[in-house]
Amino acid sequence: MKLVVQVKLLPTPEQAAALTDTLHRVNTAANQVSAVAFEQFGLRGRELPLRTLCYGDLKAGGLGAQAAQHVIKRVVDAYTTLRANLRNGNFGSPASKRRRKAEAKPIVFRADAAHTFDDRNLSWQLDAGTVSIWTVAGRCKNLRFVCSPDQAKMLAAHRKGESDLVHRDGKWFLLATCDVPEPQVYEPVDWVGVDRGIVNLATTSDGDNHQGRRLDRYRRWQARKRAELQATRTRAAARLLKKRARRETRHARHVNHTIAKQVVAVAARTGRGIALEELGGIRGRVTVPRDQRARLSSWPFQQLGAFIAYKAQRAGVPYLEVDPAYTSQRCPRCGHTARTNRPTRDDFCCRRCGLAGPADVVAGVNVRDRARSAWVFVNMPQPAPA
Question: What is the pLDDT of residues 80-130, one digit of tens each?
């Protein structure tokens, strides 16, 4: 499996100026290539024809051979992504204003957008804690970086492929791709069912409850601060709004990482698998009052599920997604399913057999039971051909 390791660069003022100039130059060149690609091929630019048209001009403009190749490849990949988004309807219907706008002009790259480097124009000196990177001002050597011991060990053992130079919030980072071998998935003795929600971010069938109260309170506080900044309507306020949005995203990501790590650790220690509800498209299916729309839209359930999935894959823990229908209304003992089984959001009480308990724990138990049945079909041998 492929993982990304982020390390922080500590450039000197001269090195930082060279890196800034490099990003500006390569992104200006990418905009030029994008304009040529759109004029000649529309949204269907290909790498080989663009090399023929643009490689000489990029070299004459001061870019190195590898930098010119990466600029062309970035442009082609950007148009490939745009076509996929259009094909999947992410820009709306063919008649929508947003889609027509995306199809009517070439892709534009920000001046400080990330740029890709490979082993020909970026080398790592892991023992010394430095990198050597190509810039438009020449090779920038002895550029220091810092990372955790675990990240350094992963870089030394599994780094493979390209790395991205990123300038974010006045800081410099390198995002290195690591190809980590996947351990063999073991046969689970049982399953841990996980129910995701808004009030309780994750509740397991064991009764472990990871509440979202603190995260919800933090987001409400951020919403009040956003409203105050939006009322000023200044450029400084706009910059602060972007900064706060990134900070809130990092906070939610940290909470999800913590929850996912704990769930996977429990499953791995007990030899069980992890089962989650398949909640794709829930924002399109669920309707809520207007005052709760922002709360539902900022619900990080998909990110939490992705974190649990990749951490389970990395640890060799079996992972399944099951049908989410009526998991919070079905009695796990007698099977009776009714909306009246859940008189309140937090409580469950079966109208047939009297089983009672926390509603989220009952939902986690139902997810676990469905995983037990689904795993049988997942591991069923292929029938012999007739």
Answer: 999 999 999 888 888 899 999 999 999 999 999 999 999 999 999 999 999
Q: Collect all residues with Cβ–Cβ distance below 8 Å to 209 and sequence separation of at least 6.
A: 200, 202, 203, 358, 360, 361
Q: List, edge to edge, every strand of the sheet that includes 200-204.
A: 209-211, 200-204, 191-196, 273-277, 319-322
Q: What is the pTM of this model?
A: 0.80
Q: Which residues touch 40 (CB under 8 Å, ≥6 apart)?
A: 49, 53
For residue 159, CA distances in Å to 34, 66, 326, 358 come to 30, 19, 44, 45
Cβ atoms of 201 and 210 closer than 8 Å: yes
User: Going by DSSP bridges, is the β-strand pair 319-322/273-277 parallel, antiparallel, or unpaired?
Assistant: parallel
d(CA 386, CA 57): 62
Among 277, 328, 301, which residue's Cα sits nearest to residue 215? 301
Kindly report, residue by residue over 316-338, the tens digit of the pLDDT: 999 999 988 888 899 999 989 99
- Beta partners for residue 349, in sequence order: 356
Closest CA to 18 of 79, 62, 59, 60: 62
